[in-house]
Amino acid sequence: MLELIVNVIEQGLIYGIIALGVYITYKILDFPDMTVDGTIILGAAISSILIVNGVNPFIAIILAFLGGALAGLATGILHVYLKISSLLSGILVMTGLYSINLRVMKTSNISIPNKVTVFSLLGTLIVIVLFIFFIKLLIDLFLKTKLGMLLIITGDNENLVTSLGQNIGTMKIMGLMLANGIVAIGGALLTQYMGFADMSLGTGTLVIGLASIIIGQTIFKLPFIKETTMVVFGAILYNVLQSITLNLGFPASDFKLISALTVITAFIISSNKKVLKLKRGEKNVRN
Amino acid sequence: MLEIKGLTKTFNTASINEKRVFENFSLTVSQDDFITIIGSNGAGKSTLLNIVAGSIPVDEGTIKIHDKDITKLPEYKRSKKMSRVYQNPALGTSPSLNIIENISMFNNKNKNFGLSFGVSKKNIAKFKEIVSVLGLGLENHLETKISMLSGGQRQALSLLMATLTKPEVLLLDEHTAALDPNTSKKIMEITEKIVKEEKIPTLMVTHNMNDAINYGNRLIMMDNGKIILDISGNEKKQLTADKLMQLFKDVKTNSVLSDRFILS
Ligand SMILES: Nc1ncnc2c1ncn2[C@@H]1O[C@H](COP(=O)(O)OP(=O)(O)OP(=O)(O)O)[C@@H](O)[C@H]1O
Ligand SMILES: [Mg+2]
């Protein structure tokens, strides 16, 4: 029983990292980014293939981050320079990533020997906690810097970024790269944790991220808790709920439906509470 | 100095909705000009400001600031030279950030947005003083998120932030139109104070005849993409709202007449 609880929390924390990536695009950048459904597998694929080939698992995670950032760059370029809508840009890159991921992994499923993961160093839970602690801390610090605040403004009021003499497109691309890099780290950690990488890992990542954000911001909304903390707690609670449903006898495959229903319910309940709504209600009219 | 020369602009060219707003339009704004612009709905006032700011491209013509041609410069690069305040108070501030963060960001305008902290402690006293000039008591709520402020408070801050780093041109498009009469008056007074003290060449669009007369050194009336009245100095000082309304009506009937003339 204790082991089950620890497992659920560990997995929840890893999903916390993924949810933080989604938080950056969805809540800060105001961009519903479907890319993440592919990026999480890209992170898993890069990390697992490198480890199988004897690369240090920490370096594998750094390279996964870079791979994820490249995917974000692709989505950003489609959206900013080719003026493709945010949703479609993400879907296009996600679709393309499916083939790329298969090429990276060469098969649709790789297993990793568990002696050579980042977790073998200090013990699984400690390593996961350290990872999420540092990622969360870095995000919190970043959002206090000039560049970080400019990213917040990018999601808040595009017009203002222009008024500050800065290029809005560059800012969006940067945000997408950062977010997808973080999601890829989550994917890399997830494979090292589970001991395998699998092409089916990605489906529903955006929705799971959103569900975590909603749960976190609904249940843990207290004045002294940072939004990023709420998101991580939301991800843990989401995983707890998932494991409860599994233990109630629902097949694991039902959980995607349950996640979608969670998000829909949250939309209905919070339609006037702005938990999940995109920030820009109205288009920027200038007259 | 701002120089607009030979400006031509048509919306929806070669479609059923084709609308020619400007044809060979020219305007020179000198260094000490504070110009108020009036004119009926659809006269082209906002389009003019949008073109100067670079949010709308021109078909023909040139725009120069201090003899430097900026016609082809993208909007965000032009922003380094000019600032705008819009009618909609939501456009001038960032609601998720607090007052001090908003001000700090504008204090950094035209500089590098890097990884140093957005709000530096040593500036807080200075910003407090700047905000207190508004006389709204906001200096005691610097940590308050903008989303908690009223439209008037946001507009006052927008104006302050737009002029924090002195722009070479200030563009105001009905920036008091969404406010109640008292707040509107207050914002106009702040506007005048800043424009005078900082000596910023300014274009201010308004539908308030009294404001158009009472503020600024030069008044322009636009109709159908043309300047139909351009008065300054003593002549402007002697204007009254009644006289201006009469001029306004005369112009309208004249243009209706000439339209009829063309039709017949
Ligand atoms: N983006 C656009 N596309 C098509 N037509 C436009 C566009 N912007 C403005 N127009 C047209 O150009 C003309 C001038 O509009 P503009 O907004 O400049 O008027 P205005 O003088 O600011 O009026 P108001 O006093 O109502 O603000 C109008 O006929 C308008 O319909
Ligand atoms: Mg207008």
Task: Tell me what the structure shows.
The complex is a heterodimer of chains A (287) and B (264). With 287 residues, chain A is an all-alpha fold. Chain A has a single domain, classed as ABC transporter involved in vitamin B12 uptake, BtuC. Chain A has helices at residues 2-28, 36-52, 57-80, 86-105, 124-142, 146-156, 158-163, 168-194, 205-219, 227-247, 255-269, and strands spanning 109-111, 196-198. Chain A has a two-stranded antiparallel sheet with strand order 1-2. In chain A, helix 2 (36-52) packs parallel to helix 4 and helix 3 packs antiparallel against helix 8 (168-194). Chain A is globular and about 55 Å long. Chain A starts with a helix and ends in an 18-residue tail after the last helix. Mean pLDDT of chain A is 90; it is low at 281-287. Chain B is of the alpha/beta class. In chain B, helix 6 links the parallel strand 7 (169-173) and strand 8. In chain B, helix 3 packs parallel to helix 5. The interface between A and B is medium-sized, with 28 and 39 residues. The structure holds adenosine-5'-triphosphate (ATP) and magnesium ion. Residues 11-12, 19, 21, 39, 41-47 of chain B line the site of adenosine-5'-triphosphate (ATP).
Attribute tags:
heterodimer, A: 287 residues, mainly alpha, ABC transporter involved in vitamin B12 uptake, BtuC, two-stranded antiparallel sheet, 11 helices, globular, disordered C terminus, B: 264 residues, alpha/beta, six-stranded mixed sheet, four-stranded antiparallel sheet, 9 helices, binds adenosine-5'-triphosphate, binds magnesium ion
Brief description of this entry?
With 287 residues, chain A is mainly alpha-helical.
Q: Which percent range fits the helix content of chain A?
A: over 70%
CATH topology of chain A: ABC transporter involved in vitamin B12 uptake, BtuC
The coarse overall form of chain B would be globular
SSE arrangement of chain A, N to C? HHHHEHHHHEHHH
How large, in whole angstroms, is the Cα Rg of chain A? 18 Å
Reported for the largest beta sheet of chain B, the result is: 6 strands, mixed
**Biggest interface, chains and residue tallies:** A-B, 28 and 39 residues
How much of the polypeptide of chain B forms β-strand, as a percent range? 15-25%
The overall pLDDT of chain A, averaged over residues, is 90
Low-confidence stretches of chain B: 259-264
**C-alpha termini separation of chain A:** 63 Å
